[in-house]
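User: Structure tokens for both sequences below?

Assistant:
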Amino acid sequence: MAFSYCEYCKVPTTNPLHTKYHDTEYGFPSRDDSVLLERLVLEINQAGLSWETILKKREGFYQAFREFDVPTVAAFGPDDRERLLADAGIIRNRMKVDAAIHNAGIVMGMIDEHGSFANWLDSLHPLSREEWTKVFKKTFKFTGGEIVNEFLMSLGYLSGTHDEKCPVMDQIRLQNPPWMTVVR
């Protein structure tokens, strides 16, 4: 189950697995295609599982998906798919593995057409959560409303990652995440 922003801000004080992610990544914008692909793959794999499970397996995902290098993952073939499905360091779900490879190919198209995955996101911003979900469902595999919401919140395209009193919010505001700008 996903955390609401208030609950998530309380988790890092009691769970060291969440601390680094909460304090340095969650809600912070990124322009790096490999970071965006990683976040999308992790959010897809979190479906039906806890975020803690995904954080425990994060290094395994990083290795298995070749540091989330977009062209490399997009070029994965049947042997890579089987390797991933046999890798205990990640979530071995065929639909999620297939979605990761397929979605990397989609991101490659975005890089070719827009220069980067972030530029594609920027070209659509601002959209409501519902509008984002429709676009993602038409564009990517395995991207329901909660996955899209968490992906976009985690990268600063939607607000709500942290409690307003959380000290991390001051750091996020300094980076001027997309949710703070509504100009098209």
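Moving on to the next sequence.
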Amino acid sequence: MDGGRRKNPAQWRGHLDAILPPARKLTARGHHVAMAYRDVPAFIDQLDAAPGMAALCLKFLILTAARSGEAIAARWDEIDMEQRIWTVPGSRMKAGSEHRVPLSDGALEVLKVLEPLRQGEFVFHGRDATKPLSAGALEMLMRRLKVKSATTGGPTVHGFRSAFRDWAGDCTNFPREIAEAALAHRVGDAVESAPIAARMRSSAADP
């Protein structure tokens, strides 16, 4: 106590700020509204019916749980169709480490549609084949499909990663560490991460 007065244990300064991450980190996830994972299959059907490169890119992003910058800038030399692996270099990853993404049948189908149309290094190129899609192309597509409104908000592109995490937790038996590694989130130290990476490679080799 201080001068006969009790301090509020829930106050931020001098209490919670000493044991919790910065407030900006605590609220950051709330800025990315997620679509309920049960609604994602129907949305994939919408994307299949929508023309254009952005629809294919967004479908690929959802099926790989990738960030938009990772998917938009995907290059053909990162894709191993035979081994069903997409290797994203550390230079494009938020954590700065190379990320190996197992490719599902659906993700491979997207690539097989685009492979005959390949014009340059980028998988999802813009009107200029030497450049990737614009950064806002996926959000614009969401609004065109009336999934997201510029005025009322709604599910975001980044929110599909949260939908994936919810689905993995609710509908699969994979350990938390595997789900987090699939999202390229850091899990423990290098010793702890090694068996997780090995299990992910094994899953990719035996789809």
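User: Anything stand out in the second?

Assistant: The domain at 34-205 is CATH 1.10.443.10 (hpI Integrase; Chain A).
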